Structures are given as C-alpha cells and as structure tokens.
UniProtKB/TrEMBL annotation, chain A:
Source organism superkingdom: Bacteria
Main location: membrane
Keywords from the UniProt entry: Cell membrane, Membrane, Transmembrane, Transmembrane helix, Transport
Residue ranges of domain ABC transmembrane type-1 in the record: 92-302
Lineage: Bacteria, Pseudomonadati, Pseudomonadota, Alphaproteobacteria, Hyphomicrobiales
The protein's name: ABC transporter permease
Record family assignment: Belongs to the binding-protein-dependent transport system permease family.
PANTHER family, alphabetized: BLR7065 PROTEIN, SPERMIDINE_PUTRESCINE TRANSPORT SYSTEM PERMEASE PROTEIN
Entries under InterPro entries matching the protein: MetI-like, MetI-like_sf
Annotated source species: Devosia elaeis
Keyword Heme: no
Compartments (UniProt record): Cell membrane
The keyword Cell membrane is assigned to this record: yes
Transmembrane segment boundaries: 24-48, 97-118, 130-150, 226-247, 285-305
UniProtKB/TrEMBL annotation, chain B:
Native source species: Devosia elaeis
InterPro entries: Bact_solute-bd_prot1, SBP
Protein name, entry field: ABC transporter substrate-binding protein
Signal peptide: 1-24
Origin: domain of life: Bacteria
GO terms for cellular component: periplasmic space
Compartments, as annotated in UniProt: Periplasm
Length: 314, 449
C-alpha cells in the first residue's frame, strides 16, 4: 500500500515539468538566439577573420583574401618575434607582468593582509577591508586617471611628497613604466585575494590555533604549519583566477597607452592596437584567437583542479 | 466638452506626428575643434557664423556641432569605425591624405554619389585653385570640399636666438649642420633648454610624419615613394634622416626626448616653445595661425616681436628634392559627407553653404589662412603672405596611396625607436623595411642601397 504511491510519485517527479517540451523550447529560443548572435557567431567569426587579411581601411577592407595561416606565421616570425612592439615581446612582457603583479604582488600581499587582520582589533580589520575593497570597486577610468595624476613628473602627488621629505623627483611613467603598472595592478587587485584568503582563514576551526598557542607556537609557525596547508585549495583557485584576469587586463593602457616605445604593451593592448588603431582586423583576430586558447588552457587547469577537489569527498 | 478637447488633442498629436518627419531635419557636424581649445577659430566659425546663417536660410533644418577635443588619430579612428557601421556625423572635418584609404575601404563615397548629380553644378568648383583641387580628389572624383592648404617651416624664437649671439632677423640655415650649429649655440648658453623640436614618435601621429620625417627626408633628395609609386624601404636618405634624429635627441640632447615619447607630447612641444625652452620648432603655418595667437593656450607673449620663421634647409645646398636648397610639404583639410547620411540633400546644402565666399570670409576674419578658393580675400597677414609666396612654389604633396596611412604609422614607429635610443638607425630601418613589405607586398617596395 505505502510503496506504490511513493514510486508513482517518484516517477511523476522525474517527468514533472510546468511546460511541455515544445513550450519550453519556445521559451528558450529568444535567449538561445541572443547567445548565438552575440557569443557563438562572433566566436566563429573571429576565427574565420583570423585566416583573412581583412582591414578596415584600404583595398583589403572590401575584398579581403583568404591567407591561410599567414597571420599566425607573421605573429610567430622568428626574425621579428622578440622585437619591441611585436607579438612575442608583448607575450613575454605579459608573462612577467602576471608573475610580478598577480602571483607575487596580489597573492602575497593579499595573503599577508588577510593573515595580519586575523589578530587585530575588529575596527582596524573593518577599516583595512574598507580601504582595500575601495581600491577594487572604483571604476577603472577613475583610478586610471587618479594614478596618472599621482605619478606625473611635474605636478604629481608622489613627487610632491618625495620633494617634501627632501628626495628628488622621479619620472616614473617614462623611466619605470613596467614597474608602475606592476605596482598599480598589485594595488588594484590585492583586495580580491585578501577577501578570499580572509574567508578561507575564517573557515579554520579556532581550536587549532588555540592548541598551537598553548604549545607556544609563533605567528609564523601557525601561519606555515596550520593556516597555509589548510587553505591550499583556496590558494590554487585564487592564483588561477588572478592569473587569468591579469593576463586579460586592459587598464594599464589608461596609465601608459602601452608606451613609451611599447614598453608596457601587454597582449590585450597589443591586440587593441593591431585591430583598432592599425585597423588590421585579420591579424588582430589571430591575436585574439591565440589569447582565447591561452585562456582556455588556464580554464581547463582551473576546472580540473575543481573536479579533483570534489572527487575525494563524493 | 471633454470629447472636443480629446479630439483637439488627438488632432494636434496627429498633425505634429505628420509634420515633424516632413520638415525637421537634424544634421550633425563634427570637427576636431573646441571653442577655447584646439582649433578654436574653426569651432567659433561653425557655431557662431555658419550654423545660424544656414538655419536662417533653411528653416526646419537643425544643425548641431560636435566639438571633438581628442587627437587627430583618435578622430580618424572614430570616423573609420562610425562610417563602417553606418553611424557618425552627417558632415565631418577630414584630412585629405586619408581619403584614398577610406575610399578603398568603402568608408567614403564621392559627393555626387552621396548627394546626387547636382553636386557637380556647384559654382564653387571653378573657384578652387588648381593645387587645392587635388586635396579632396581621388580617382577623378571629389570626396569633399577643401577648406585650405598649408606649408611647413622652422618657427623661431628671435629673442633666444639673439641671446645666443645669432642675428635672428636674417638667420636662415642653408644646411642641416647650420641648423644644428644654431641649436648647439643656444644649448651652450642654456644647458637646460631643448632648442630644437623635430617631431618624432608614435604619439604625435601624422604630425611626426609630416612636420618631422618628411621635412628631413625631402632634404636628402628622396621621398617616401619613388617615381613608380613604390615605397622606398632602404636608402641613404632614410639613414641620414634617422641619424639626424639620433644627433638631436640621443647624442647631443638638443631636443626634448620626453616630448616625443609621451602621449601628450605635441602639446608639451608647444608649451616648450611658449616657455622659451625650445627656440626652433618645425611646424606648419597652423602653428602660427592656431597655436600661438593671443588668447590661446600656447600663446607666445609679445608674439610680433619674438616669433619669426625660416625655411627648412636641405641636408646640403642643392641636395633637396628636385635639387632644391630648401624644402617644404603641404597637406590640406576640408569637410566630407557621411556616405550613410539620412539627409544627403541637406548635408550637401550645408557643406556647400559653408564653402561659399560669404562664410569663408567670416572664417578669414577669425583666422587668416591659405584658402582653397581664389575668390576669397585673405585679410592682411604679413606672415601668411610671406610664407605662402616663398614656400608654395617649393612644396611637395604626400602620395595619394591607400596604403600611405599604414606606412606613415610605420614611419612614426621607426622614428620613435631611434629617438628613444632603443634601436640604431640601421636596425630601425631594417624593422621599417620588414613592416612596410608586410603591408604593401614585396612587389611594391624598393631598396636604394
């Protein structure tokens, strides 16, 4: 008596739906159309254009020709690959930028901040969080301009401060453009790492630390032997996310325009210049496809780690 | 009562709905001009003279001026993207050298194709001088109406030359060495100054190619293309030009290297001239007309006394293009019609209206310049009269080639690589050769080495 209704109900649940399949499909169609028009079609269009010599101006704008892999071969031409203002140079520059500003700058600073605010009085913790998060949520154009004004040689705030304590002025944007964008991106992105690590630390049972305290452990020992091993998964997730974001970031353009002399031309800025300043759509699309592949590799690593993390628990 | 009101309201709504599309036409005009900013006189002229007069003569047409305050290259970028998507202003200011690449890219149409055959009946065509006709012409068709042409020269600070013991009123270098000697003399008494400004670098865009590179290259007897229209990618002239850049910006620091590399470098070079940091500056007559007059941002104090000019010398006397002792180059600007304009007839009416003698005279009153039309009088301006009479016979034009714009960008990169000290002239030229060959193809380049 009791089993029968349950099984029928289970079957019903399995087949339960508010709409018929046809109606469901009809409701999905608008969204599906939008996604295909604005995501899927451009995706394949970019791949297609990357095999042509299409430009915006000049003869190849109206009559682009199929050039096969010529755009890709030109990007990887060994004769010019490492020259400033070429693809290889900006790829290497971007790698250095990701290493210095994301993996070392953002992640380390975020980890340090998150650890330090575990032990301070709550009001200092809240204050620190507010300032760090403010740096993260401000619109990019606003902070780009603020940093530009901050670093200006003649009227910049930084040089005024340096002069006030008797130090000489620096011409930061021209002499050290790479380190400027590294510091800038560290400042900009440390908040995310801090918040992520902060919540990771909060998930560790306080009794672990209390026991360590009883044993007389120093802060460094607690950090090294308890905190870090327990949040290893969070660290890997964080590193992959900030690597992808930093790889694709365009904001340094607001500070340096990719210059002087291409010294801060990250791949995203290189891609913009080729496609929308030189108007070489074909070559620009090829750069875009390569960036897409690199991002895909990051994403696969990220997904596989996520899957591994789940596997032991299930 | 309420029914009658309702009927009235409905009737009014209906009438305006019918009337509005039939009569009101909105026209958008864009120029790189801002009242009180860059090219202020052009903006004042359009806003205060052309638009009111045109609207009075054409009731129902509303014209709005977009004052674009960015750089030339940014306006080009905006127009190219706008025109390719069917957007953009109905009438826009336009630099003539861009016409071939826009036309070949399908982003501009000839005036008669946009606005109909009556364009060719306009009385103004016959009034254009022979030289200015070519400015907006491509493949025998007009793509816009030229406003005027220009010439290039060395602008001098006579007060600083005098300080260095040079007679500023008669100073006229006859070779690059004499030009450098004057700069060295000034540097000797003012070690912190940057006496000489020859535009270089990517940030200044076409101003690098036109006001810097071309003026030097023509002095070596060469051009960017040879007589068969092929781009010269290797030559002694290119090397000599790059070596002069190196001397000025790297070896002897006679010029302000920062101003060539920073994004707002051209304005910095203007400020240097205003502040007496730079005494010799290669620019067009535009610099005199529009940059340094009283009341503008870079106004030179006591200008009539302290600002002078000299011709740009060839490398050695007689070594310039066509065997000339002195060289210069001209470009020209005008206004074009958007090929996708919704109101081609009104847009053409506006374009031709602003190029009638009456309106052009109003412009001359604001800012005297070399006009495209021969029937517009230039008010008494000794500078303009002297420079145009001396330099127009010597002048050169840029190639009417759809790839010129892209090659020009490579020229800017080549100069930047040298003035930043990044590459030697030989290396920079090798990079230029590779890049230009990739743009125009190996069949269209030639080496003179």
């Amino acid at each position: 008596m009791t089993t029968e209704p349950i099984t029928t109900e289970a079957k019903k649940v399995r087949n339960f739906s508010l709409l018929s399949n046809r109606a469901g499909a009809a409701f999905l169609t608008p969204a599906g159309l939008l996604v295909s028009v604005f995501v899927i079609v451009p995706f394949f269009w970019v791949i297609f254009v990357s095999f042509t010599n299409r430009t915006l101006l000049g003869r190849t704008a109206l009559n682009p020709e199929f050039v096969g892999l010529a755009n890709y071969l030109a990007l990887f031409d060994p004769a010019t690959f490492f020259q400033r203002g070429q693809f290889g140079f900006s790829l290497i520059l971007t790698t250095q930028f990701v290493l210095a500003s994301a993996l070392i700058g953002q992640a380390l600073l975020g980890l340090l901040l998150a650890w330090l605010i575990q032990t301070v009085p709550p009001w200092i913790k809240r204050l620190t969080e507010t300032f760090v998060i403010a740096a993260w949520i401000l619109p990019e154009v606003v902070i780009g301009f603020a940093w530009f004004a901050f670093l200006d040689r003649d009227a910049g705030t930084l040089n005024m401060m340096l002069n006030a304590i008797g130090l000489p002025s620096g011409d930061f944007l021209l002499d050290q453009p790479f380190w400027v964008i590294v510091v800038f991106n560290t400042w900009r992105g440390a908040a995310f790492s801090m918040m992520l690590f902060n919540s990771a630390f909060s998930s560790i049972p306080p009794s672990y630390f209390q026991a360590a305290d009883v044993a007389g452990a120093t802060s460094w020992q607690k950090f090294r032997d308890i905190a870090v091993p327990l949040i290893r998964g969070h660290i890997v997730t964080n590193l992959i996310l900030i690597t992808m974001w930093t790889f694709n970031t365009f904001t340094p353009f607001l500070l340096t325009n990719g210059g002087p002399s291409y010294r801060t031309e990250l791949v995203s800025i290189y891609n913009y210049r080729v496609a929308f300043q030189d108007f070489q759509f074909g070559k620009g699309a090829a750069v875009g496809v390569i960036m897409m592949l690199i991002n895909l590799a990051f994403a696969l690593v990220y997904l596989s780690i996520g899957r591994k993390k789940k596997a032991p628990g299930t | 009562m309420s029914n009658r009101l309702r009927a009235l309201a409905l009737g009014l709504v209906g009438a305006t709905a019918m009337a509005a599309p039939a009569f009101a036409v909105d026209l958008d005009v864009t120029c790189r001009c801002v009242i009180g900013g860059v090219n202020s006189a052009t903006a004042e002229w359009i806003e205060n003279s052309v638009i009111p007069a045109f609207e009075a003569a054409n009731p129902g047409v509303n014209v709005r001026l977009n004052q674009f305050g960015g750089e030339d290259a940014q306006l080009t970028q905006q127009l190219a993207l706008d025109f390719s998507t069917g957007a953009g202003p109905d009438v826009s200011a336009f630099d003539g050298f861009l016409i071939p690449s826009f036309v070949e890219g399908g982003l501009l149409k000839s005036l008669d194709e946009v606005a109909g055959a009556e364009v060719n009946d306009w009385s103004g065509w016959d009034a254009l001088s022979e030289g200015s006709r070519a400015l907006m012409l491509y493949d025998g068709k007009y793509y816009g109406i030229p406003l005027g042409t220009d010439v290039r020269m060395i602008h001098t600070r006579k007060d600083i030359l005098a300080e260095a013991g040079i007679d500023a009123d008669t100073w006229q270098p006859t070779s690059w060495e004499e030009l450098l000697d004057a700069a060295r003399a000034i540097k000797a008494i003012k070690p912190d100054s940057f006496p000489l400004q020859i535009n270089a670098g990517v940030a200044m865009g076409e101003a690098t190619t036109m006001q810097g590179y071309w003026l030097l290259l023509l002095g070596t007897g060469e051009s960017v293309i040879d007589e068969n229209g092929k781009f010269i990618v290797e030559s002694q002239g290119i090397l000599d030009t790059l070596n002069l850049y190196k001397t000025v910006y790297v070896d002897e620091k006679l010029g302000d290297q920062r101003a060539q590399l920073l994004a707002d470098g051209r304005n910095r070079s203007f400020a240097n001239f205003r502040d007496g940091v730079t005494a010799l500056l290669l620019e067009g007559d535009y610099f005199y007309r529009s940059v340094t007059p009283e009341g503008s941002e870079f106004a030179v104090a006591n200008r009539d006394e302290v600002q002078g000019w000299a011709k740009v010398p060839a490398q050695e006397p007689g070594k310039g293009i066509r065997g000339q002792d002195f060289v210069t180059i001209s470009g020209g600007t005008g206004f074009v019609l958007n090929p996708n304009t919704d109101s081609p007839a009104e847009a053409w009416a506006f374009l031709s209206f602003m190029n009638e003698p009456e309106q052009l005279s109003a412009f001359q009153a604001l800012q005297p310049r070399i006009t495209a039309r021969t029937d517009v009088e230039i008010p008494d301006s000794p500078f303009l009269t002297e420079t145009s009479q001396t330099l127009l016979p010597l002048t050169t034009a840029r190639p009417n080639d759809p790839n010129y714009n892209a090659v020009s960008s490579e020229i800017q990169r080549m100069t930047e690589a040298v003035v930043s000290g990044e590459l030697s002239p030989e290396e920079a030229m090798a990079q230029y050769k590779a890049s230009v060959t990739a743009i125009v193809g190996a069949d269209n380049v030639v080496s003179l080495l």
